[in-house]
Design a protein that fits this description.
The chain has about 210 residues and is mainly beta. It is about 5% helix and about 50% strand. The protein is built from one helix and 15 strands, in the order αβββββββββββββββ. The chain has one helix at about 1-10, and strands spanning about 25, 30-35, 40-55, 65-75, 85-95, 120-125, 125-130, 135-140, 145, 150-155, 160, 165-175, 185-195, 200-205, 210. The strands form three sheets. Strands 5, 6, 8, 11, 13, 14 and 15 form a seven-stranded mixed sheet that branches. Strands 1, 2, 3, 4, 7 and 12 form a six-stranded mixed sheet that branches. A hairpin with a 7-residue loop joins strand 3 (about 40-55) and strand 4 (about 65-75).
């Protein structure tokens, strides 16, 4: 009986299990300047960027959630007329070095490149299943609009007529599941620039960050 009483008292004083707090990561963003063939100059930047990382409710190390926030701007100088199509997103990799992505480069691993950024495979509010050495893209925009035949179509870019365009996102979320090694993510914004005399795809990259 004495032993049972001591055990009950000890259990009553056990501290609660530690909570897994979210990890807030401030990020430096990025900037790039490109001169097109007609002499017009494109300035692009990502600023105000941050990410918040949390694990799964079941506390499994294979699952991570990300809430991403940033603002991106594209400016075109010395062009008589300009159309800008901006498309923001993130590259997410499992045991892939995303730091090698740099203004049109490709990362080691399975990251194909088209127009300076890997092909789209997923949208925001989604869960990516990734194995070691794999990487996928998350596109943030999904704009619905009717086509010429009044059929709804979806596009992952925002089109602006003029020399200035911007796009912002606040707490856009995506998740990674199945990655037993380290996971990374990195923001990008690709812009198709048309000036009437030149057309180019320009991509600005944010800094890679660890998802654990």
């Amino acid at each position: 009986m004495i032993g049972a009483a001591i055990t009950a008292v000890a259990l009553g004083w056990c501290p609660p299990a530690p909570a897994h707090a979210d990890t807030f990561i401030p990020l430096p963003g990025g900037a790039v300047t490109r001169t097109l063939g007609d002499g017009s100059v494109v300035h692009m930047r990502i600023d105000g960027e941050s990410a918040k990382i949390s694990g799964a409710m079941a506390a499994t190390p294979l699952h991570r959630n990300v809430w991403a926030t940033a603002h991106a701007v594209a400016d075109v100088e010395h062009a008589a007329r300009t159309t800008i199509k901006m498309s923001p997103g993130y590259i997410v990799g499992c045991q892939v070095d995303l730091s090698s992505l740099d203004n049109g480069g490709t990362a080691s691993g399975s990251v194909p490149a088209t127009g300076g950024a890997p092909a789209a495979e997923a949208g925001a509010d989604t869960t990516l299943t990734l194995g070691p050495g794999q990487a996928r893209m998350v596109r943030l925009l999904d704009l619905e609009m009717p086509d010429d035949f009044n059929t709804d179509i979806h596009r992952n870019y925002n089109q602006v007529s003029g020399p200035h365009a911007s796009v912002s996102w606040q707490d856009e979320t995506f998740a990674v599941d199945g990655c037993g090694g380290y996971a990374q993510a990195r923001s990008f914004v690709s812009a198709e620039i048309s000036t009437g005399h030149a057309r180019a795809m320009v991509t600005v990259w944010g800094a890679p960050f660890s998802m654990g």
